[in-house]
Amino acid sequence: MKRPETLGALRGSGYTPRPVKEEVRENLIEKIRRHDRIFPGIIGYDETVIPALINAILAKHDLLLLGLRGQAKSRIVRQLPSLLDEYIPIVRGSEINDNPFRPVSRYAVETITRDGDDTAIEWIHRDERYSEKLATPDVTIADLIGDIDPIKAVSQRLHYSHEGAIHFGLIPRANRGIFAMNELPDLQPRIQVGLFNIMEEKDIQIRGFHVRFPLDIMIVFTANPEDYTSRGNIITPLKDRIDSQIITHYPQTMDDAIAITRQEAWVQRNGKILKVPKYFEEIIEQIAFEARKSEFIDQKSGVSARLAISAMENLISTAERRAILLNDETIIPRLCDLHHVLPGMTGKLELVFEGEQEGSVKVGRALIGKAVREIFKQYFPDPLRKQPRRRSSREEEPSTEEAIYSPILKWFENGNSIEITDEMPTVEYCKQLQRVSGLLEVTSRYMEFDRRNIAEYAAAMEFVLDGLHQNSKIAKEVIDNVTSYKDMVGTIFAGQSRFGDED
After folding, report:
1. Which residue in 21, 79, 191, 493 has the fewest CB atoms around it within 10 Å?
2. Cβ atoms within 10 Å of 209's Cβ, excluding its own
3. Could you tell me if 215 and 202 are in contact, meaning their C-beta atoms sit under 8 angstroms apart?
4. Do domains 7-247 and 395-503 have the same CATH topology?
């Protein structure tokens, strides 16, 4: 259907413009009636953030999304334009998207007065009605609202008080649309004061001139909690003018966390077959869960969901590098690959003083160890419990953990050890692990895997060894990408002996 191109044709079409918040509200209601997914790709907020967001939109509120980094605030904001009409008409050439039926700028008023029903109309897409700005300390009122442009005034021979001499800022240019400002606390307080009129009276005023007109706009802010940033905060009068404040949060369940990482991580590599066992996904997510309660990490800063995403990408890249070197068709990670995820972690952890004393790498390794220990106990009996937990009821459990792990522990107690590397050929990697007495039996009993895929069940066997190490049952040492497992007691006494000899 051809859209009207003049004001007269637009009137004749029966088109009725709506205020932007009414437009967003009615389009949201229609989506709810159709049972559409309102915010696709937003995981873990179905019972918390999204209902609050829907309520605020139905109330025609301006919004503040408040939460720590990596909680999908910007992603939510950038989906709001999907609630706008696909196209709306404006006076052609208008800098502030003038409504043809209710123009507010001098340009639009003079154009309609001059041309009447022949006034040219253009249609703009919903994507053109969304504007976003990152708040930084150098943002000025002129950037946001506008200022007098002396060059424009001189070139057009206009008085400085003439509206034609104005250079409009980001907010008036977003008229009849949505304006989003990220990291609001970083905006200087005096600039925040300049937003008062826009939030309350919905109009702008340029300097001291008699240039003032109303705006039809929905404003959305994002911010970290005030006590996180030392650079500034949201001044109280501005917070009072923001209608709804919605608190975001990190994934609250393992399933939600895994779903987010699966959605966001780049995992498809050069046509090779990728297989990441579920316990690896759980370990990666558990690292983030452990970090969010670690005493060495500043919890006011938060631990972004990007940590798990980057860690997973690094883990897969390590397995991919090995597949390329060994000319393997399948990419399967190993437990010894986990130390390669540290570069994706350390830059995302804000350490407190005690953490700085330990060092980011040491803290990162400790988080990985805790994650392995927690996930290990979900698949295998807890080595530290006399009555081990059972993951399934398929088989009777032995009465004590010694009966389960004793063949493995005795093998190491007899002075045996193994060494593996992340570049070791799969067959050799598997042979090394199969040397450990009872290891394959314990692994097969509690985990399901494809026995035809030696890389898969070899990785599961190493998971058992690393889980025993994290529960202080056997020793582990990593030197130059060589991981060795050996007897815990023997290692302690050997270390003491070496120390004594040095004295």
Report:
1. 493
2. 15
3. yes
4. no
Specify whether the CB–CB gap between 161 and 210 falls below 8 A. yes
Rg of the chain in Å (alpha carbons): 31
> Alpha carbon of 134 to those of 189, 221, 246: distances in Å?
15, 10, 19
Instruction: Tell me if residue 225 falls in helix, strand or coil.
Output: coil
Instruction: Give the SS3 label for residue 333.
Output: coil
User: What single-letter amino acid sits at 71?
Assistant: Q
List % helix, strand, coil for the chain (3-state, nearest 5). Answer: 50, 15, 40
Cα separation, 94 vs 112, in Å, equals 11
For domain 7-247, the CATH superfamily is P-loop containing nucleotide triphosphate hydrolases (3.40.50.300)
Per CATH, which fold does 250-379 belong to?
Helicase, Ruva Protein; domain 3 (1.10.8)
Pairing of strands 87-91, 121-125: antiparallel
The residue type found at 44 is G
The full length of the chain comes to 503
Question: CA angle 198-199-202, nearest 5°?
Answer: 45
Q: Does the pTM of the predicted model rise above 0.85?
A: yes
**Interval 44-79: pLDDT, tens:** 999 999 999 999 999 999 999 999 999 999 999 999
The residues facing 125 across adjacent strands are 87
Q: Which two tokens stand for residue 263?
A: 């959605």
CATH number of 395-503: 1.10.10
Q: Which two tokens stand for residue 372?
A: 């392995």
The domain locations on the chain are 7-247, 250-379, 395-503
Alpha carbons 61 and 57: distance in angstroms, whole number: 6
Residue corresponding to tokens 């995981």: 43
In the Cβ-directed half-sphere of 397, how many Cα atoms lie within 13 Å?
A: 19
Residues pairing with 220 in the sheet: 63, 180
Tell me if 160 sits within 8 A of 153, measured CB to CB: yes
